[in-house]
Write a structure and sequence with these properties.
This protein has 245 residues and is α/β, with parallel strands linked by helices. It contains 4 helices and 16 strands. Strands 4-3-7-1-2-6-5 form a 7-stranded antiparallel β-sheet. The structure holds flavin-adenine dinucleotide and FE2/S2 (inorganic) cluster (FES).
Length: 245
């Protein structure tokens, strides 16, 4: 993990509130599910913001983010050629090297972007990957993820695209050797419970408010069955059976 000064290559709005940011990257190993702390301001906002890696390419890192508050709004104003500071890669990421066979990726909202890099790595490792993606309304990242997947299952709350309802209604965990999930806690709890019933290994990527992002401030600590853990350093990915929801 290190500090990087990068240059914005592209910062494109793809829906009402979703942006894709591409920055220059000198290279290094980035595991699926890892994230960077980002900061593109010097003034009143002190803390960096955690955003997961969406895609990694030769010389570039991609992030996909939703504008929700002051930091992500400032990010959305970045133009090509602007400078941005990054700290990372942070966190443990999914244990892709331990997985085999057929894997389901279950994402909801901005939990979907990190599953893109995950799908690519699992596919390149020779695994069969299916994606279950749940959206509020507008779709995003689907074309990027389906490149690496055998079957895609899409749901939206209003049913204008795909199945109307929750993506967990579509999931059949017993078809898989492992299920990896990222998104709203209520969705991940349901996925974890379904996997427990089907006796299938499940990994959840947690979201938590973060200050330092490097394990120093303890601000993101959670209670687990193995004691207190820092989401930013010991996670964000946890085995579902270790979590105390
Ligand atoms: C490991 C991890 C990976 C993430 N990956 C993505 C991603 O790929 N795409 C994406 O759109 N969002 C992602 N998020 C959520 C994103 O970090 C927040 O939406 C963002 O920090 C909000 O900042 P803000 O200044 O716009 O909002 P504000 O609400 O103004 O933020 C105030 C403070 O709270 C923190 N904060 C607010 N909401 C969250 C949140 N949901 N999670 C963590 N910290 C929060 C901010 O970092 C900041 O320190 C991720 C969060 C975590 C923990
Ligand atoms: S945010 Fe500081 S320890 Fe996790």
């Amino acid at each position: 993990m290190r500090y990087l000064e990068s240059i914005v290559e592209e910062n494109q709005q793809i829906t009402d509130d979703i942006f894709v940011l591409c920055v220059t990257f000198a290279g290094g190993d980035v595991k699926p599910g890892q994230f960077y702390m980002l900061k593109s301001w010097d003034t009143e906002l002190t803390l960096m913001r955690p955003i997961s890696v969406f895609q990694v390419e030769d010389g570039y890192l991609w992030f996909m983010y939703r504008t929700v508050g002051a930091g992500t709004r400032r990010m959305s104003e970045l133009k090509n050629g602007d400078r941005i500071r990054l700290l990372g890669p942070c966190g443990n990421g999914y244990p892709c090297e331990e997985l085999k066979g057929r894997v389901a990726l279950v994402g909801g909202g901005v939990g979907i972007p990190p599953l893109c890099h995950t799908a690519e790595v699992l596919h390149r490792n020779g695994l069969t990957v299916d994606a279950y993606l749940g959206f509020r309304d507008e779709l995003f990242a689907v074309g990027d993820i389906e490149l690496w997947c055998t079957d895609m299952f899409i749901s939206t709350e209003h049913g204008e695209e795909g199945y109307k309802g929750f993506v967990t209604d579509l999931l059949k965990p017993e078809r898989y050797d492992a299920v990896l999930t990222c998104g709203p806690e209520v969705m991940m709890r349901k996925v974890a419970a379904m996997c427990a019933d089907a006796n299938v290994t499940c990994y959840c990527s947690l979201e938590h408010r973060m200050a330092c992002g490097i394990g120093a401030c303890l601000g993101c600590s959670i209670r687990t069955k193995n004691g207190m853990k820092r989401v930013c350093k010991d996670g964000p990915v946890f085995r579902s059976t270790d979590l105390m929801w």
